[in-house]
Each structure stands twice: as C-alpha cells, then as structure tokens.
Amino acid sequence: MRLSATAATGGEDGGITVSGGEPLLQIDFLVELFQKAREHGINTCIDTALAPFTHDQPFLDEFEELMGLTDLLLCDIKHIDPTKHRHLTGHDNVNIPSGLRYLSKIGKPVWIRHVLVPGITDNDDHLRRTAAFIHTLFNVERIEVFPQDMLDVYYLTFVFDLHVWCYEVSFACKKSAKGARLLPL
Asked: What is the per-residue burial (b if ≥16 Cβ within 10 Å, else e) of 87-115?
C-alpha cells in the first residue's frame, strides 16, 4: 500500500491518498487512518479498482463505515467487457460496476480513470460502452483517460500529488494519446 500526503494542513488543496495493491483489502487500517485524518482536518482519498466490493456482510458494513470517512475515490475501469477484463487482469470485473453503482447511490465523489492500451482497451465499441456505463452514474466528478506510454508520469502525479503539476500532466497525457478519441457521453 502506498500513502501520499499532499499537504500537512489538509483543506481543499491537501490530503492523503491511499493506493497500491488494493487498499480495500485493509479496510480496518483505512478506517483507523482516516479517523485520525478527520481529527486533523485532512482530506482522504482512496485509489482503488473496487475489485473486492461486495454487498455481502461483513464487507458492506465495513465499507459503509469507511465511506463515511472518505472524501474521494479514484476508481479504475480497466476494461468494461467481462471477458476482456478477465483476460487482462486474471479476475472478473463484476464487483467493479457494482461498486461504482453503490458509490453513485450514496453520492460519494468519484474520479474515473482509464488507461488506453493499444489493441486492448482502445476499441471504439468498448470505449462507447464504458462511456454509456459512466453516464449512468451521478457521482462522477472527473474522467481521466491516459495513454499507456504515460503511466510512469501518471504514477508520479499521485506520489507527489502537486496540484498544478497534476493538471499539467493530465493535460499533457490527453494531448499525447496517439489516435485516442474521447467519446461524448
């Protein structure tokens, strides 16, 4: 698990982002960490693929408690197609849309992220299906689409999380995506 602190004071321009591996596999730790962050007025963010999400207990109760302490989630949609997702990651993606729908239902702010991998995640039909799914969600504040060749730079934006630099890198990634098309919702 990685922890990124953007500003010791928290507030609108600072906070902590927990990522690396899958943070939702350590909910007890996150609840304790985010409780401490709240005590100090520090914003909280989770970078997750939502793969462990389930409506089953005890996960759902623990997840609900964590969401009460979480300001923002950065959620990856690796592939909208279940078969392609399984081929890409080795795991099913059923829990991911389910988790995103749940977050929409409770109104938890989400940024969606999608990496364009030539020949794998850049198919127009799959991108349209991804856009159509995202359009059903009411809590998405931002959608970031990154080309595969910018992953190292993208990773650095979350390690250092410099507000202005993140915007510039995001813009640069979108400009550098060769042949990438952002499809309207």
From this structure: eeeeeebebbbebbebbbeeebebebbbb
Angle at 92 between CA 178 and CA 77, to 5 degrees: 35
If we measure between CA atoms, which residue out of 20, 21, 26 comes closest to residue 159? 20
Task: Report pLDDT digits (tens) over 80-105.
Answer: 988 888 888 888 899 999 999 999 99
Tokens 């591996």 correspond to what residue?
Answer: 21
| Number of C-beta neighbours around residue 66 at 10 A | 20
Strand, coil or helix: what is 73? strand
> What's the average model confidence in pLDDT over 4-24?
71
Q: Which residues contact 73 (CB under 8 A, 6 or more apart)?
A: 45, 46, 47, 48, 103, 108, 109, 110, 111
